[in-house]
Amino acid sequence: MNKKIAVIKGDGIGPEIIEESVKVLKKIEDKFGHSFELIYVDAGGAAIDKCGKALPQETIDVCLASDSVLLGAVGGPKYDSQPAENRPERALLGIRSLLGLYANLRPAKLFDQLRDASPLREEIVDAGIDFMVVRELTGGVYFGDHVTEEKDGEAVAYDVMKYSESEVKRIAKVAFDTARLRGKKVCSVDKANVLDSSKLWRKVVVEVAKDYPDVELSHMYVDNAAMQLCKNPAQFDVILTENMFGDILSDEASMITGTIGTIPSASFGDSTRGMYEPIHGSAPDIAGMDMANPIGTILSVAMMMKYSFHMENEAKVIEEAVGKVLDQGYRTKDMESANTTVIGCKEMGDRIAELI
Ligand code: NAI
Ligand code: MG
Hints:
Blueprint: E1 2-10, H1 14-32, E2 35-40, H2 45-51, H3 57-64, E3 68-73, H4 88-98, E4 103-109, H5 122-126, E5 130-136, E6 146-151, E7 154-159, H6 165-180, E8 185-190, H7 196-209, E9 216-221, H8 222-231, E10 238-241, H9 243-256, E11 266-268, E12 274-276, H10 295-307, H11 312-327, E13 330-331, E14 341-342, H12 345-354
Parallel strand pairs: 1-2, 1-3, 3-12, 5-10, 8-9, 8-10, 13-14
Antiparallel strand pairs: 4-5, 4-11, 6-7, 11-12
Helix pairs in contact: 1-10, 1-12, 6-7, 8-9, 10-11, 11-12
Bound molecules: 1,4-dihydronicotinamide adenine dinucleotide and magnesium ion (MG).
């Protein structure tokens, strides 16, 4: 198959983790006889450095003309002084919204080999951690009005959390469809005891659930969900939640599986074109040190194969190669534990590619 992939390296560790993922893409091309045309474009800090704009029009055009997008991570302290509308993170929000990527899938699965890296007690880990966070990605407070104004002689700032019925409905459907292919349970996370947007959320989710009698629906307030993720993560199959709650809970979910460095994500809308990226940021503290964990990005490539290209086998081969390297005891620094060998980002990528 011929596929066009827009590649955005981004900032900080972005270029390092993308380089390793490209090694994997090349191996998949060779092994399965595909042709992946990689088109490199900039967004975020790298784009600001080149042309002053965090999200150049060319980047949008190339993404729209591609079959999918692979992204490292954007942002960093160097860009903190940028005006709000030209911050690297806003570029990411722009791509998500312009491509209509309203659904963000973030699997949280504990690799058996990384059990020691989980901060949770052994008996909690033993019960198993394997769930999927389905996060709404183009609505909620990140996309509502952001306002800072003067009132009665002091600065006042507010951000608006807003959802429409149709926005909730389409993401709820994704969650229920996802649950059908997994453990047939959806836990919808909101703050319906306080927020109107959450009350509407809950009402719509209950409506959508009527079309999925085979899937069990439960509801949880977000503060309790944060607690339950530490106390009893085995209870979850699919967690359905709004944009900001999903952002926070999926970072927490990544930590209980050992490290944020291994968690991939897929974002899509109504077409098969998706954007694939690790859930972590640009990690400026370790950028350029060959210390970054490339597995989250490599597993994002596996998700791309599965969700955008329907290449199930290719995805499986990548996942198995990652498993084998971990079996052999190799770890990047963030996954280090007793009796393991710490290697750099490059060597991790080489070893995974070699096993494909
Ligand atoms: P971060 O995820 O970049 O880093 C948090 C901690 O995790 C750091 O100690 C970092 O070293 C570590 N870490 C992250 N990824 C790692 C990897 N692959 N291997 C090993 N260790 C890893 O979050 P932080 O520090 O809050 O944000 C840094 C910058 O990234 C900010 O400018 C932020 O806005 C941006 N950001 C961008 C995202 C994106 O592009 N999707 C998502 C989150 C943050
Ligand atoms: Mg985040």
